């Protein structure tokens, strides 16, 4: 019975969490804390932390974590399957529709119209991440102690390494991490 509950709970989360992992968090909280009582609020905070630290989408990491906490490895598999199944079905249906109707002018026009919107969404997400990294308050303000120069220098250095020298992004992240560890070791 617990496997069915895990599957159905995360099937709902996977089907209705439009907008990415952070948009899924209220749905996950409603299922695992409010509805089933599988986790406490403190456990849910740990869930968010672990889901952000591990590679992969937050919703899938959360499903795996909750499933493992509740029913071990089989629970993790069932919850993860429930979370990814709606997306797999939706993308498969979209791919079929695209292959069948890709030459239609309406479809091509729709895809052309979506490209600038996707770029705007990615830019908005980037700015949302950069503001708290550059400014301690999270808002643009050059008040004393609010502007953080080190992250700006890392950003500019990473941008140069990625665009001018075309270094691998993973290597650039490692280099930034090494620089920060070195800074912390030397100056703290």
UniProtKB/TrEMBL annotation:
InterPro entries, per database record: CHR_Transporter (IPR052518), Chromate_transpt (IPR003370)
Membrane topology, as annotated: Multi-pass membrane protein
Cellular component terms (Gene Ontology): plasma membrane
Keyword Membrane: yes
Transmembrane helix among keywords: yes
Localization: Cell membrane
Entry keywords, A to Z: Cell membrane, Membrane, Transmembrane, Transmembrane helix
UniProt GO molecular function: chromate transmembrane transporter activity
Domain of life: Bacteria
Transmembrane parts of this sequence: 76-101, 113-134, 169-187
Family, per entry: Belongs to the chromate ion transporter (CHR) (TC 2.A.51) family.
Protein's recorded name: Chromate transporter
Organism: Anaerofilum hominis
């Amino acid at each position: 019975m617990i496997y069915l509950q895990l599957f159905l709970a995360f099937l709902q989360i996977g089907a209705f969490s439009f907008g990415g992992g952070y948009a899924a968090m209220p749905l996950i909280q409603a299922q695992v804390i409010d509805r089933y009582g599988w986790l406490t609020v403190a456990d849910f905070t740990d869930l968010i932390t672990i889901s952000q630290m591990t590679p992969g989408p937050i919703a899938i990491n959360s499903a795996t974590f909750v499933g493992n906490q509740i029913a071990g490895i089989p629970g993790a598999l069932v919850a993860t399957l429930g979370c990814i199944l709606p997306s797999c079905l939706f993308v498969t249906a979209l791919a079929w529709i695209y292959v069948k109707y890709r030459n239609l002018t309406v479809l091509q026009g729709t895809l052309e119209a979506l490209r600038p919107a996707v770029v705007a969404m990615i830019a908005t997400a980037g700015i949302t991440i950069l503001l708290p990294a550059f400014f301690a308050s999270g808002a643009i303000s050059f008040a004393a102690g609010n502007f953080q120069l080190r992250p700006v220098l890392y950003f500019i250095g990473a941008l140069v390494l990625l665009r001018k020298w075309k270094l691998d992004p993973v290597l650039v992240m490692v280099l930034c991490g090494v620089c920060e560890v070195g800074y912390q070791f030397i100056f703290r």
